[in-house]
Amino acid sequence: MEGEDEDSENPRSFNNAKIYKRMIIIIAGAFMNIVLGLVLMMITLLPQEQFASNTVSSFAPYSYSAVSGLQPDDEIVNINGYAVNTSTDFSFALYTLPVQEVDGTSLEIYKQDCLFSLYRHYAGIVNDNKDISDEDFNESYKLWEEGAKQVREAKDKETALSVASKSVDDIDTFFNLELSKDYPVPQNKETRSRFRTDMKVRRNGEIVTLKDVDFVTVKNEGSDKPSLQIDFYVKPIEKTFGTVIGQTFSQTVSIVRMVWGSLIGIFKGQFGLNDLAGPVGLASTITDVASESLKTSFSSAVMSIVYIMMVITVNLGVVNMLPFPALDGGRFLFLLIEGIFRKPIPRKVEAIVNGIGFALLLILMAFISLHDIWKIVVGG
User: Fold this and answer.
1) CA distance 188 to 285
2) Bridge partners of 82?
3) Where are the domains of the chain?
4) Is the C-alpha dihedral spanning 25, 29, 32, 34 positive or negative?
5) Which residue in 44, 89, 128, 220 has its CB near the most CB atoms, within 10 A?
6) 164 exposed, middle or buried (CB, 10 Å; 0-12, 13-18, 19+)?
């Protein structure tokens, strides 16, 4: 644009426009990135039959969070200090939780172990009975569910183990199996790895703070890092014209918050180099996601790619407005300084600062791209 990087005598050039007009021009690109994000978000939402809420519907029988104080009909509004307004906020807040070493001798951990032992016993039987009828499955599931409920309600370790053992016997009896002689008695270890967090929920119209809510922590084969498993179900949001529009805007805002939160997380050390990706890494990710989605259907693969495109365009809009030299946010900052002091920053100074910023961005992109290639080569 004439007058953007050099002085011009043309009265209609960029440098001769009023400051507020130049500010609008500078932020227009990032704004359109967000607008495109809204369009792509709506495209991903339209095929869905319903939308996920943040309100707990029910728990899996092995649920750790149910042991930790979460209840049906709780609307989750905050996780570890991160405000939760949509399912995207909910997922981002949970999957960025750090794993902790917690007291392994507590009653809650003991009951969690009992629940998971009961789950493995039941799952093993069901997997071995491939021809189980729907009726038998439903009846046996009720037995498992009732046993898990009694474990969660246990007031001490002895009661928890007793009801878990009885539930194992009930399940074995239902399937006409020999009763198990050795019950998997939980071990009282000093510490355990858990994804644990404080939460705020809206319960009966009031905000309630829940301390130390645990989630199922799964050890992954071939990796030292465990993963978090959400152990409850949420209530659906009915799909209407209003909810489609509402979800389009609220979910896009959540993506903006997610990008911003991720950037802050990088500076805090929450995310490392392996969590970053450049063009090469993005291409690899899109390929992997499309391949996995194709196993479901072609339309699923298309929607997955559209979703990634939406995240990328919103990411570009947010990052481009960071107050860093060479980015639009840096240029906006210069205009803000000009507006405050009523005097423009010298062209030469602006050019040097933007040049340095641009060089740093190129170096960063080259470094991340080389790291992406290395991850692909070594299978990371």
Assistant:
1) 41
2) 79
3) 14-47+247-378, 52-58+69-101+193-237, 107-174
4) negative
5) 89
6) buried
pTM comes to 0.82
CA 121 – CA 249 distance, rounded (Å): 45
Range 52-58+69-101+193-237: architecture per CATH: Roll (2.30)
Give the C-alpha distances (Å, rounded to integers) separating 100 from 51, 95, 114, 200. Answer: 31, 13, 20, 19
Across the chain, which has 380 residues, the per-10-residue mean pLDDT values are 82 88 93 96 94 94 93 95 94 90 92 92 88 90 94 93 92 86 73 93 95 89 81 94 96 94 84 80 85 87 92 93 91 91 86 91 90 80
250's CB contacts (< 8 A; 6+ apart) are: 85, 86
Token match 């905000």: residue? 207
Residue type, 364: L
- CB 60, CB 229: distance < 8 Å: no
